[in-house]
Amino acid sequence: MNFEDIYDLLFGKDISWYACLARILLSMIAGAVLGLERKIRQQFVGMRTLILISVASTVLMLLSIYTSGLSENGVRGDPSRIAAQVVSGIGFLGAGTILRQGLNIKGLTSSAIIWVAAALGLTIGSGFIVPALIALFVCEVCLISLEKVEEKYFPAERVKHLNLVFENKRIDLVALNKLIVANGLIISTTDITRILGQKHLNISFTVKVPPSLDIFALTDKIKQIGRLEEFSLTD
Q1: Side-chain-side CA neighbours of residue 65 (13 Å)
Q2: Longest dimension (CA), the chain
Q3: Residue ranges matching CATH 3.30.70.260 in the chain
Q4: Mean pLDDT of 162-187
Q5: Cross-strand bridge partners of residue 202
Q6: Which class is domain 158-234?
Q7: CA distance 225 to 230
């Protein structure tokens, strides 16, 4: 097999069985690369899911190209009709990966990757190989490298409830806020509850928490501000 045969196999308009095989295998590799990145990060969407999406999109694109040339009167059909339905339908599958956990939203990146897998499958199926490979490379670089950038410059991403119960009637709220911020937390809201007739002061914060937070060190520092009775950090 010479270079021209390989070129026609991947980029040509002929969809012989070996051209279909080559594109389906390439689509499987693209889905596996995306799925491997998700599995490394312990996400729900994995290799099998994205391989199935990518390969199925490729098959549907090949079917669109094939059926567009079946007209008996010589008028070619529109090969984009099935592809358009894939683009519309993949949104339902992607929406299923978006979950709300407490104050946080999870699954947005996995949903976007499902969209990417479908797009790569359609692109590879149509023989538009080079843009598909470029898109795959760019997506993988963004998924791997930009996470480190986000962790460095935007470390506090996960939103949690910080609940503190003091035995004091009063504490220095300004000092408490400065202490919390100094430990890398970002305060969004503050709620204070004082139980009349008791010496309990309940302070609740909605905070963004960095992954590197040392909870035990933070607890020890808060104890220096007042008589801390209860400490909880929950979603």
Answers
A1: 19
A2: 90
A3: 158-234
A4: 88
A5: 165, 193
A6: alpha beta
A7: 13
